[in-house]
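Annex B. Sample input.
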Amino acid sequence: MRRRDLIAAGTVLAVSATAASAAPSSDAPPEAATLNLVPVGLPVISEGRLRNYVFLNLRLHLAAGKTAEMARPHDPFIRDALVKAAHRVDFSAAGDWTRLNERAVIAAAFAAARVVAGEGLVASIEVVNQAPRRRTGMRAD
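Annex B, continued. Sample output.
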């Protein structure tokens, strides 16, 4: 009988400690919302030829006071604008058809988000992952 009481008391202490540590501190500022876009495949075009596709995962860091629900309806339009920009501009990293230039992709995505969703929705954009369709593809310069 004593063993049950000890186990029950230990469980109650563990649950209360977990709940106390999970509660947000009133001093900490609220974290900005993020939205992971649906992965998008961008072409790598060099010298007028399609060389590869690179699939990107992008994360939008939203401005203060904005929620993911406010940005989610704009997701397909941002991705569409990014694909259209990738057909006009070569986003590939110098000397490599398996990676994209992250700065160029982020600049194009930020411009697309600004046009599609308005000026104050997105604070920053992060490239989370790049996965090429073909794993080889170094340029022979």
